[in-house]
Every structure is written in structure tokens, then in C-alpha cells.
Amino acid sequence: MTTGLLALTVFAALFAMLANRLAATVVTAPMAFIGFGYLISQTGLFPASQAEVILHVVAEVALILLLFLDAAQIDLGALRRRHTWPVRMLVFGLPLSIALGTAAAAWFMPSWPLAVAALVAAILAPTDAALGQAVVNNPVVPERSRRGLTVESGLNDGLALPAVLFFASLSAEAAGDGNFSWLIFSAKQLVFGPAVGATIGALAGFILLRAKRHLLTAEAYEGVGAIAIACITYLAANEVGGNGFISAFVAGLMFGNVVKGQCKFVYEFTESEGLLLTWSAFFLMGLTLVPEALDHLHWQSLAIILTSLFIVRPLAIWLSLTGTDASGATRLFFGWFGPRGLATALFALVVLQEIDHDVAEPVLMLAVNAVWISALLHGMTAVPGANWYAAKVRAMGECPEIQPIETSAKPLRTTAH
Q1: 413's torsion region: left (phi>0), alpha (psi -120 to 50) or beta?
Q2: Contact (CB, 8 A) for 31 and 380
Q3: What percent of the chain has pLDDT over 70?
């Protein structure tokens, strides 16, 4: 295992040294670390049994922190005031993606209960800007478009999570004894989780502001405090029967909108410490899950994944932006650049133990295959796609005004969940 860890750290160091140059190529960090993890899995340098334990820990920590910190960057006031592109994609596009994805999954896997098809659709709905980093950081793409994709990817995982839990409860109920115990449990999670998160997030924000006002703390300690708050909300929600992940997301929304840019760590984490966390998660995924997922890649699961990437999301985004000032090129661009990333795999891991064993493994394997396929396709098309879109915008004379809605501090993230 030591040799495997050494190989990972050397690879991470080398990738970091070349990251700026690689950002202009088809090679993305998720693609590289998933591929390296798969390569290591073939050597036996990193025992799979030990890596699986580490993966679950890293996955949960990553999901908790990134849900909290992504949500903390969203300006709720601006989202309420403006009928912006990301709002339409979240309010209309996300439910449409789940509905269309359910129909596609049910078509290709008629033996699955409808609840399982809907669960798969909900797991495949969240997007990850880290897989399209060459897009959201490319200066040739209009800033409003980059912001739209960044805000959507930052919020849609938290908004998709209740749907994932709800359909997981329905699928468990369909395989159970019909007493609706899982449905009641899920309802408690969806009520108590947000309540705990809203209370702790708002209270923590007010305490931080007061502490800063009286010089009781400093920026050097804010990061520790923010991470602790995210963990507190997760653990507290679990203690009272709520869902800790939803609690962390809601806490981030409340915390960020109370402190309003006065906690710099919120905007810096995903560009520093968060990189190591997400790179490690992708590496462990490639090491432990991708080899098995490849063995489970049959034509039905591949059809569901490709339909989700090429038809479901593009159609949902196109319809959700109808009636806005988004051009056809913009709607096509947004529809394609919705890569499936860490949230898709983590959501499948979260519900793995809660759904029927007969469908649990196929659902997880489908999610993992969706992540590496998306990493490959979106990584390869990120740079040429961004250049195509920029050329179309220039040719049409389209120059959308900048509408900063997600944060009053750093405008863009270099990675995501």
C-alpha cells in the first residue's frame, strides 16, 4: 500500500506542475486521476480492499464539504431578483432531466421498477464543472455563460439529492413489505435535515460576523471553522433523523448569505485544499470501482448513459431556456457541457446500502461508468467546444451582459464537487 500511495503522490505532484498547460488540452484532472487509478489497479500496488474503505471516507467527506462550500457561494438574494439562465436550468431543467431520464431508463431496462429508473435518472442529473474545467475557465467564452454553468453545477447536486433519497426510499419500499417505513424515514430526513442545516448555518454565520467584529478570530482560523460547521451540521442532522448531506447543503446556503463574502475560505477551498480531496476521490474511484464497472458495462447501461448525455440533458436545457435571451448556440452549449462527476458516483454510494440488493450493484456500476465516459467525452470536447461557441457568439454579435449572481467575491471556480 505504501508503494501505491507513493505512486499517487508523485503523480499528483507531476500533474500539479503541468496543470496550467494541461488545462488548454483535452486532458482534465478527473480524466487523468481516474485513468491513473485504473492503471494502478492493474498492478496490485494498492490493495483494493483497503482502498474501498478509504474511498467511502473520502467520498463522504468530499460530499459534505463541497455541498456546504458550493452552496455558501450562492447569492440567494440575486437568484430571487433575476430570472437568469441558471435559475431556469435549475428550476425547470433539473426536473425535466429527471423525468426524461426516468423514461429513458425504463425504456432500456423494462425489468426495473419505475422507482429504480427514476433513481438512476436522479443520480445522473447533477453536473460537475471540474470535468469541463477548460470551459468554465476559458476566457473566450462569455463570462455570463461561464457563470451560468458554474452556478448550475454548484447548486444542482444539492437540489438533486432530495430526489435521489426520495426515489431510493420508493425503490426500497417496492422491494420491502409495503409498510411504508422507508417512506416515513425518508420524509423525516427531508424535513429534519434542512431544518437543522438552516438553523446551524445561520447561527454560525452570525457568530462568525460577531467574532470578526470584536477581533476574536482571524482569517487564518476561518477555514477550520467553516469545515467544522459543515461537519457539525452533517452529524447533528444524523442525530435527529435528518439527512446530513442535505443539512450541509442548506447550512452552506444560510451561512454564505449571512456572512456575504466575509469568509474568504469559502471561495478559496475548491481552488486549493479541495483539489487534493477531489483528485483523491477520482483516483480511488478509478482504483476500486472502474475495473468492476467495466465488467458490468452492457449495451443497456451504455444506452442509458449515452441517452442521458446526448439527448436527456440537452433537450431538458433547451426547453428550460425557451423564452429567455439565450440563443440556440447557447442552449446547445449548455446542454452538452453538463458533465457527470463526483456527485453522480457519491450519490450512488450513499444509497447503495438502502436499496434492494438486486439493483444496488447495477445502479452503482452504471453511475461509475457514466462518470468515466463523461470524463472522457466532455474532456475531449471542452476546448474545441468552447472555441466553437465563442466563434458562434462573435459571428452572431451576441455579447450577453455580465450578471454576477452567485458570489460577491471570487467569480469562478477552477474545480467542482
Answers
A1: beta
A2: no
A3: 86
- Domains in the chain, ordered, with CATH? 50-396 (1.20.1530.10)
Nearest to 89 by CA among 318, 327, 337, 403: 318
Spell 231-262 as b/e; 16+ CB within 10 A means b.
bbbbebbbeeebbbbbbbbbbbbbbbbbbeeb
Q: How many CA atoms lie within 13 A of 413 on its CB side?
A: 34
DSSP state of 190: H
Q: Which three three-digit cell numbers place residue 230?
A: 459543515
CA distance 137 to 134: 6
Query: Smallest Cα–Cα separation from 38: which of 295, 377, 344?
Result: 295
295: enclosing H helix or E strand: helix 290-295
Query: To which residue does cell 500539479 refer?
Result: 16
| pLDDT digits 0-9 by tens, 259-316 | 887 777 776 765 667 778 888 888 999 999 999 999 999 999 999 999 999 999 999 9
Q: Rounded distance, CA 342 to CA 375, Å?
A: 10
Three cell numbers, residue 144: 455570463
- 182-222 pLDDT per residue, tens: 566 667 777 888 999 999 999 999 998 898 888 888 887 88
Reported pTM: 0.83
